Amino acid sequence: EQLSGASNKLAGKRALVTSGPTYEALDPVRFLGNRSSGKQGHAIARALSLLGADTVLVTGPTHEPDPVGVKIVRVESAAEMLTACQASLPVDVAVFAAAVADWTPAQVATAKRKKNGGAPPSIELVETTDILATVSKAGNTRPRLVVGFAAETENLVANAQAKLARKGCDWIVANLVGGNTGTFGGDSNEVALVTARDVETWTRATKDMVATQLAARIADTLSK
Ligand code: CTP
Ligand code: CA
């Protein structure tokens, strides 16, 4: 009877989580990336799985260990992450914790770019597809609960509320980055849970604790 009580609140439910950075190729050896560690997203996948959810983790390149019991789909680019997320639908809840590149090179060189004595190349970028917004507006296959993240350096709550409305998700987990709040790579996180109705500021906690708290909230909401 180890699986009774808190550990089976999400039994029979399906969850999708994105995590890590994306890598956008410039040529066969170079990419544009970011410093996301994947710690928060991986912890959320682990926490949902511990509550009994059938969990798929779509992740960019990280050094995090694979969460036990979670189906892992490894991707590199934002475009690959979108395809993998769409392939994992339908789910009951989707949590988009990945730091998806906002821009990707317009062209990927098929051979390594070489210095040839001229001026440095400039790189033309195009915007990536917003995975969170796409899944939030997916019609028939929209998960019942869609949770996004927002990393902001200022105006945390106002920016998060604007993102919630623009993207059409249900909740935004907002956190301040930069300065001493250092989220990227760190083990703790100070977040606000922003919904259409209200804003809850959570006390600073480890990323594992934030994940556990978020998974419990998700379980409560899906049980109603
Ligand atoms: N996101 C996504 N696909 C993208 C860009 C962002 O799914 N192409 C998701 C992130 O995983 C996160 C949320 O959108 O859950 C917000 O990401 P964020 O970078 O804070 O917002 P942006 O809309 O990209 O706005 P900006 O970076 O300009 O603040
Ligand atoms: Ca962004």
TrEMBL record:
Residues 10-220 form the DNA/pantothenate metabolism flavoprotein C-terminal domain. Pathway: Cofactor biosynthesis; coenzyme A biosynthesis; CoA from (R)-pantothenate: step 3/5; Cofactor biosynthesis; coenzyme A biosynthesis; CoA from (R)-pantothenate: step 2/5. GO terms for molecular function: FMN binding; metal ion binding; phosphopantothenate--cysteine ligase activity; phosphopantothenoylcysteine decarboxylase activity. Residues 15-224 are annotated as: Phosphopantothenate--cysteine ligase. Its cofactor is Mg(2+); FMN. Its EC number is 4.1.1.36, 6.3.2.5. CTP binds at D102, K112, F149, K163, K167. GO terms for biological process: coenzyme A biosynthetic process; pantothenate catabolic process. Binds 1 FMN per subunit. The keyword Transport does not apply. It catalyses: N-[(R)-4-phosphopantothenoyl]-L-cysteine + H(+) = (R)-4'-phosphopantetheine + CO2; (R)-4'-phosphopantothenate + L-cysteine + CTP = N-[(R)-4-phosphopantothenoyl]-L-cysteine + CMP + diphosphate + H(+). It comes from the Bacteria. Keywords: Decarboxylase, Flavoprotein, FMN, Ligase, Lyase, Magnesium, Metal-binding, Multifunctional enzyme. In the C-terminal section; belongs to the PPC synthetase family. In the N-terminal section; belongs to the HFCD (homo-oligomeric flavin containing Cys decarboxylase) superfamily. Catalyzes two sequential steps in the biosynthesis of coenzyme A. In the first step cysteine is conjugated to 4'-phosphopantothenate to form 4-phosphopantothenoylcysteine. In the second step the latter compound is decarboxylated to form 4'-phosphopantotheine. Catalyzes two steps in the biosynthesis of coenzyme A. In the first step cysteine is conjugated to 4'-phosphopantothenate to form 4-phosphopantothenoylcysteine, in the latter compound is decarboxylated to form 4'-phosphopantotheine. This is Coenzyme A biosynthesis bifunctional protein CoaBC. The chain holds residues 173 to 396 of 396 of the full protein.
